[in-house]
Amino acid sequence: MRFDEAYSGNVFIRSHPSFEESEAVIYGMPMDWTVSYRPGSRFGPARIREVSIGLEEYSPYLDRELGDVKYFDAGDIPLPFGNAKRSIELIEEFVDKILKADKFPLGIGGEHLVTWPVIKAMHKKYPNLAVIHIDAHTDLREHYEGEPLSHATPIRKASDLIGPENIFSFGIRSGMKEEFEWAKEAGLYIAKFEVLEPLKKILPKLSQRPVYVTIDIDVLDPAHAPGTGTVDAGGITSKELLASIHEIARSDVKVVGADLVEVAPVYDHSEQTANTASKLIREMLLGWVAKRK
């Protein structure tokens, strides 16, 4: 994919026209080939861009506005429908190019399996990588009904690559008993049900380390984010998730990349989920990318 001109479709609000001059690159990963419940997250990236036009460019949380950071919207990666293996390869190749240019990759999913190839690319550049995983689900299965390429497996795959002790999961409230037992034995940190308070305790341990942050929108309670494929009652509020993004911004961890996944517009009749996701991306840009200056 070319980076020498702006994406011809809808772009995230205030995106910069030049890849070379930008500090971050927004890109979509429109894939939902392996979902086990409700499909539709492949339409998430496009809808999040469309509703971003309604965002205020100023963040009263961070006292910054989108004009303070240059980011390029590269559009969606063209992925072969139904081919998970090839899609994963293409995502990794795409992120490799972003990292080679020393840009901050900010991905929009898509199902959560898309995070796996991104972490593979990130680990090549940052061997000491740690991952902050914010989600309702453990995503620690080795396979789902015999299929190793599944949205239920990305964090297990990541742990096999970078070591389970380098993964920190927050907000988890769903998963197989065996997944929780494996995490405990392997040394993978899981904070059940909550995000902000346990995050405050972990961030000092990640001081000065390169950190990749992956956020599954279903960490939010369905009352706050109905537009997702696998809704799960008992989640956190959007206020807590925003506060968690800001807590990471205030820390001295080095966020080197991030993604937001699993927005499924077909179930989002009020567009509440897409609008929330758009605001979260604004705060990630202003809190994590602007901080790199």
Automatic annotation (TrEMBL):
One of its GO terms (biological process) is putrescine biosynthetic process from arginine, via agmatine. InterPro entries: Agmatinase-rel, Ureohydrolase, Ureohydrolase_dom_sf, Ureohydrolase_Mn_BS. It holds the Pfam family Arginase. It catalyses: agmatine + H2O = urea + putrescine. GO terms for molecular function: agmatinase activity; metal ion binding. Binds 2 manganese ions per subunit. Pathway: Amine and polyamine biosynthesis; putrescine biosynthesis via agmatine pathway; putrescine from agmatine: step 1/1. Its EC number is 3.5.3.11. It comes from the Bacteria. Mn(2+) binds at residues 112, 135, 137, 139, 216, 218. It is an enzyme of class 3 (hydrolase). Its cofactor is Mn(2+). Keywords: Hydrolase, Manganese, Metal-binding, Polyamine biosynthesis, Putrescine biosynthesis, Spermidine biosynthesis. Catalyzes the formation of putrescine from agmatine. Belongs to the arginase family. Agmatinase subfamily. PANTHER family: ARGINASE/AGMATINASE, GUANIDINO ACID HYDROLASE, MITOCHONDRIAL. This is Agmatinase.
